[in-house]
Amino acid sequence: MTLAHASTENWTTLSQEITKKILRDVINHHYRPGSRLPTERTLAQKFGVTRQVVRESLKHLEAVGAVTIRQRSGIIVNDLPISYFF
Question: How many other CB atoms are found less than 10 A from the CB of residue 40?
């Protein structure tokens, strides 16, 4: 395994962990549907990771419908149906 491969592997795991943390905050209503998440920079500082890791996490959350990313408007939390969790 090369160093580059190991870095990519760790980065993916880190991105997945941040995705779980953000989703947990949404589920626990720290961020309500229709509200905005903090900026990428703020989330990166909060979790102690790079903005690239946060950006990848947010792309995943958008792909599964948990958030909507709008340029110049921010990251909007979507209303998640109960079926999302089962």
Answer: 19
Nearest-angstrom CA–CA distance, 81 and 29: 14
Residue with tokens 């870095």: 7
Residue 6 has what pLDDT?
43
Q: Is the pTM of this model over 0.90?
A: no
Contact (CB, 8 A) for 39 and 74: yes
Query: Quick one: tokens of 8?
Result: 């990519």
Contact, 74 vs 36, CB < 8 A? yes
Helix spans in the chain (H)? 3-27, 40-47, 51-63
Query: If pLDDT is split at 50, 70 and 90, which confidence band does 86 have?
Result: very low
Number of Cβ atoms within 10 Å of the Cβ of 13:
10
Count the neighbouring beta carbons within 10 Å of the beta carbon of residue 23: 20
